[in-house]
Amino acid sequence: MAHQAGGQRSAPRPVPETSETQAYLQDYGTLLEHMTCPSLVVDRHWNVVMANKAFETLFCGVRPHPTAMPGENFLRFVLFHPDAGEVLGEHEPGWCLPMLAQLRTALETYGHDLELQAVRRDIAQDPIMEAAFRQGLPHWIRAVGEAAARLDGAVRLLNHPDPRRGRTECRIVEESPQPLRDLGYRRLSMVLRDPRRTAVPVRRVRRPRGASSHLMVVPTPES
């Protein structure tokens, strides 16, 4: 099985019992490890089932967090980790709002799912994040269109720790072979592009450890 980036889980996630499924996932992990672009396999809760070394390298600089490590749950990392913006360029419009849209769609499909509801409760405890989910997200989708909320095919900015890449673009490619679909899994790969095609670097601000959210441009209901 491929690397678990950003820290190990306290207990492995359940894997289906059949030997054929186990063998397929082991072989798929080998395939993933041979890919040079950061790649991960997630379930419908965005729990990371497996990730490759390139993914681990991309997020090697993030500080420990009790619930939002990138190799644990990618949705929680994007929304709640104070270092997410250091790696994910244009963090709010490029990553947070699209991931909130992904969560909204998942909740519409699996409304009673306990793990998704737990993420929703954590959002509700943060006034800025709650305002983004309730008011900012619908406004953003009306402004940019539903297509902007899709991940597959989207071009996003990354701040890669390798100085040869630095601030670069990636295209997100989503693939789900039938055996993965049968398990409720999907693979996302961040295909790194030539850094010479990207924008001029901008200053990154590290959030304090106690910061509860990243969203700054969405006003709270009181503003």
What brief labels describe this structure?
globular, alpha+beta, 5 strands, five-stranded antiparallel beta sheet, 223 residues, 8 helices, disordered N terminus, Beta-Lactamase, disordered C terminus
How are the strands of the largest sheet arranged? Answer: 2-1-5-4-3
**C-alpha Rg, in Å?**
17 Å
Instruction: Give the helix/strand class.
Output: alpha+beta
Shape: globular
Mean pLDDT: 85
Return the CATH topology: Beta-Lactamase
Q: Can you tell me the CATH architecture?
A: 2-Layer Sandwich
Number of E-type strands: 5
% residues in beta strands: 5-15%
Termini gap? 48 Å
Q: Low-confidence parts lasting 5 or more residues at pLDDT below 50?
A: 1-12, 198-208, 210-214, 217-223
Count of runs of 4 or more consecutive helical residues? 8
What are the secondary-structure elements, in order, as H or E?
Answer: HEEHHHHHHEEHE
Residues in helix, %: 25-40%
The total number of structural domains is 1
Largest sheet: 5 strands, antiparallel
CATH class: Alpha Beta
